[in-house]
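Render this sequence as a predicted structure.
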Amino acid sequence: MTTPAAESPRGSRPASKADKPRRRKGRWVLLSLAVLVVAAGGTGYWLYSGLDNNIQGVDIDRALGDDRPEKLPTSGQNILVLGSDSRAGANAALHTGNVSGARSDTALVMHIPDGRTKAVAVSIPRDTLVTRPECARSDGTQVPSAKRVMFNSIYSQVGPACVVKTVEQMSGVRMDHYVEIDFAGFKGLVDAIGGVTVTVDQNIHDKSSGLDITAGTHRLNGTQSLEFVRTRHGIGDGSDLGRIGLQQQFMLALLSEIKKQDLLGSPTKAYKIADSLTSALTTDSGLASLAKLAEFGRSMNGVEPSTMETIMLPVAYDKVDPNRVVAAEPQASTLWKAIRTDSAIPASAKKSPATGGS
């Protein structure tokens, strides 16, 4: 997919060696927040505490217990990222439809190999039929295992811990962390950074999502960005598979935009972005604080969007219900094995029999 070209830095003065560390650190929202807190003096603790309390945490380790894949010494870091599509509250006005409850509308496994200088993002189509393992809801009630369950229904049926367990069982990859962002929070984050630039090679008109753009380059605001990542009827065959390509393109563009932000030069903007981001986030308990997020962000500082590879889990149309897909074999198993062992992903494991008409 085409990603936006990086904008030229402001001003004509060449960057000196002394400038580069500051600029690189300034690209990370949560690291910039540390500077904001120090500069705020007497109000620093109040600002920090407010942002810290924004973050919601889920104790995935406690919920799943020991029934999990082994953490291999060479498996890098693996993060399950979900975009939840609750239709409640501020999300109700965002072209989200009239479906009750919430679903994991977007799901991807982010794999950061040892060395943390590159990353791979594997998107799991929401319409994939999977075997849901036996899981416990947050109130302790047990939900039995079930076959041929649509992947995006697990979140609403049982909760995020069961989504993690399902992904771990289907992949054999242990998830180190879990991150969830909701619709309204996504919109707020994009608006806080001033929009995201994308380029599309065709006109897209989707009455369902609200997206209406022509071929070319566009600067999208928060509402338009949400329409962009949710559109499916204006591209390909109207299935979720076509939408995944747009989601992957937008993710890279968003990361590029965040890394270009001069946050150290604008503490107010840094706070606005941090507030939008933390208000939208639910994470595993291992990341559910500013200090932990900042430490994790600092460890990811070497990962550039230009080195990130995006892959869709290889799927084939289901033989019983062609409106659903199933993991394609042996491609899917080969892909997950490469991630488990932190090894190169063969080209054959990146090809999906179901293409969504793209």
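Summary. Residues 1-43, 87-101 have pLDDT under 50 and may be disordered. Residues 240-260 form the longest helix (21 residues).
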